[in-house]
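Quick start: what a row looks like.
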Amino acid sequence: MENILKFTGERYVPEINGNIELEHIHRYVQASTLAKGKIVLDIASGEGYGSALLAECAQQVYGVDISNEAVQHATARYNKANLEYRVGSCAAIPLADASVDLVVSFETIEHHDQHEEMMLEIRRVLRPDGLLLISSPDKHFYTDLPGIENEYHVKELYEHEFKELLNKHFSYTKFFGQKLIYGSGIFAESDSTGLITHRREEGQLQTQSGMRCPLYWIALVSNAALPEFATSFLEQDVEHSDTYQSIKIALDHRVEDIAQHKKWIAHLEQDIAELNRVQERNLAEHKNQISVLTEQSEELQRSLLSIKSERDAAFAQVVEIRASTAWKLSAPLRWLIHLSKGNVTPLWNGIKFIVSRSRILVPKPLYNLLGASWSKVMNLTAVAPHSSMNQGTIADIVKERCETMQQSLAVCLPPALKPEQLPRIDISIVTYNNGRWIEAFTNSLLALNYDKKLINLYFVDNASTDDTVKQLRIFSQRLVEHGLTVEILERENRGFGAGHNAGIRAGKAPYCLVTNIDLTFERNALLNIVSSAQADTDRAAAWELRQKPYEHPKYYDPITGSTSWNSHACVLLRRSALERIKGYDETLFMYGEDVELSYRLRRAGYVLRYCPQAVVWHYTYESAGQVKKLQYTGSTFANLYLRLKYGNFWDVMAVPILSLRLMMANEAYPGSRFDVFKNLFRLVLLTPKVLFSRSSSKVNFPFRAWDFEMIRDGAFIEQHALPEPPPLVSVITRTYRGREHYLRQAIVSVARQTYPNIEHIIVEDGGNTAEELIAGLRGNVPLPLRYFGLEKCGRSATGNYGMQQANGRWCLFLDDDDLLFSDHVEVLVHALTDQPKASAAYSLAWEIMTDSSQINDGYYEECSYQVPDALRQNYDYQILRHHNFFPIQSVLFERSLFEQRGGFDEDMEALEDWTLWVRYAHNNEFIYVPKLTSMYRTPMDPEQVKKRCDAFSAAYPVALARNISRTQAIDEQFVVDTNKSIG
């Protein structure tokens, strides 16, 4: 049996037919016209078929390839007296000087990056009047335009690069283009070939001499005058073409499909007949059930009316009791009972409301003193791991959000910088036994769409004991070749922060990127983060990149990206701010040094940002929820240290209590208690110095037990690459007059989504007052904004109109006062693409009690953040029929559900979303994603709360009755639709 070389995609073999055969054979056929009677070198001869073809007319042919396997195969398969195969490379050709007349090099130069060495070797083996015939794919047309990379290509050349390389080494050159034109043509790039191409451009027929947009360049070059070299066209039989074969396969499959469909239709007709028989039997039963359910519904409504009457009577009785003298006199006793249980938040909210209503009677200094004192009492009585500064921290971020929205949107939606606007960047990387990450890190740096000459790298090695430094030197050479500046600093291991201090001091650029080496950059990560920094205010000092596959779960503002501290796994820092605060605190060896630097920046008056559009892939965890020894000891020490350095009096008082709790806790790993004891002993020695170094500040520094900021659920919900191309998502927002301040923020939260293909549809109920706002945003918002002003028709009709206008595969409702975190749509799309049979996905959301009394001035107060227990619910259709557990903005659903089952009930103004979800979920699968990705508002004012509850109570029995009856209607419609499709 003839020896066959396996086709891997790297080397062509003659057993493969179609377009690839046409391209490769045509080149060798054309080369044969130059090879007659000559000594020929076929460099990178591969399987050997081309060298054998040349040997039919040449005096002698040498086929040289770097693969020993390929050379052995070619020698065995092609046995000719004037043909010899040898092992060698383009940079070391195993032939004597000036020993060949013609060098043929097809499908070679793009497979390596030693182009200069290759040219020098070819000139060495060529005789003075020798010829080189060489091909190269045009990177623009071969790779850039189709967006597909060949994994075996190391360095492809653009047209000008290919020509510059050959013109540098040879005096005479002539270039030909090659591409498939229902066959394969090789034509000179000039008009002397007689080839005329036509194309349509902007509606006009354009004529051009020579080949247009060749996929490959073929060059004939020499240091002597070039011979005549004709253009040619190699015709291919239609039945051998890729197109013909594709159509034939498709037709064969279609014939099989038709036969299969006939069988399926026959089975389906039998099933329908049986279903009709069953349906006839069930209809009578369903009618009886409907009658029973109707009676039950009426009884339920009577019961609810009775309950409401009893509730109103009880409420009146409560009001009477609260107004009594006995209730007032017993208030201190109730306060003590709550205090003894450590549960004083409800009481505090009540007192806060009463005092806020009577501020005109209470002097402002006394009111402020009462608030501060009460927070400290709460903190102390709870043995208080939570700081009284926590709420103030969030309040500061919300205030900055409102101020920013009244000033410039560039902070929230920064435009991408142009190449000439890019600043120089220093990158500091601390290494310690990180050899396994260096290659991937280097490759991602080289793939950045940022001018490499503007990047300075400072690798700071903390006395690695493996081959990290050796590998750094190897890969640094590659980085330097691509234009980056690289410096390796070797030093003793004094910790993460100390290492970065050395790296930062070595540079001078206006921005410094501090990064781990166990991560890789997405292509536009550096451009996006620098664009954010350049568009930001002078008050901003740090911009944190988003981490995948596990996003850091801390709270950040969904509009401005402001946060109370940055993770320094990868963060861009303003050099002037770093110099002002004198870099990292080297007391902290590892973990917590980023929080400490963040707090010091904020104390100096700076704001910090989180930028979800700039992404790195950080491989810090080998498994979800992994507990790492150094992280456990380092982070607990840092928390206690920072409380001493930045906490208020009560935070400092909590340090010994937390230390005791830590010593008494179960061991996180064997020996953790002893490690904690050593850290606590060190903390005791540091305490006098830290306390005496404290400085007063009006800035709030959060401490929440062993965390610092609020944590969003879903830290280990893994994210991966988005589908290509990403389907369109339609976000629909219903609004009405007077909602402009909220609406602007909702639009920006959609515009900041990391999912790249979104349209935002805004529908106003009862006018067009928002039209001016939308028009002003269109130039700043990087996604389609579609606005529709309707006459007054109600919330439900407005929502239905929005769904009618939607073009997306998936839809999502966002109320005008709700906000999305930047990954909301991306997380839900991931869930639906992972489980394509599902019709919708939903995630967790914060309920935020909001005081909107100052909304007309552009401000509001967010009073509390919580995920109601009812929302932490795995999908269960029977539970959904009883009560709703989807906040409306948390659900991403297939738009086809609207086409199949209709929209909101337009006679409902409350719970209309619940009846919609029940209809859409019937016989469908919804996916629960336990990650917090959005927030919705509920009123703080008790009067508004009561009004809202009354509306829900009135709507509930109506909605419940509809939920029960609708499921049967959907089943009946399914039978009708199935009969129609068969008919």
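That is the whole record. The chain has four domains: 19-236, 419-626, 631-711, 735-940. Residues 735-940 form a domain with the Spore Coat Polysaccharide Biosynthesis Protein SpsA; Chain A fold (CATH 3.90.550.10).
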